């Protein structure tokens, strides 16, 4: 890929470890996180007031981002500076994704990488079982809990 970068910005639901929204972009900017949040907002039910945790990246400190969260009754939470343990659930996901999806592989171009990420998100949500979820995938666990 010759130095090209692709930024992957997901939202993980800590109830069932499901990736409920994500966006990929060549730039880690406000537009990337705005589109990700709008994708998540589309899934909210009337009266929901979730907590959205992030690190302290500049895109999460922008007034427009904070206003978008407030308009949709989303409580913003941010990690303490230099403390990756505050975002352990997301860091754990990224660690698994790197091992299962990237190690030992090379990609011809950004489009191929983005396609691999999209397929991994589908696999992770719909097929990848987790002990924490009683041997179910995140989607299976969510569906079971709604019965």
TrEMBL record:
It comes from the Bacteria. It holds the Pfam family rve_2. One of its GO terms (biological process) is DNA integration. Signal peptide: none annotated. Residues 1-146 form the Integrase catalytic domain. SUPFAM superfamilies: Ribonuclease H-like. PANTHER family: TRANSPOSASE INSF FOR INSERTION SEQUENCE IS3B-RELATED (PTHR46889), TRANSPOSASE INSO FOR INSERTION SEQUENCE ELEMENT IS911B-RELATED (PTHR46889:SF4). This is Integrase core domain. It comes from Gallibacterium anatis.
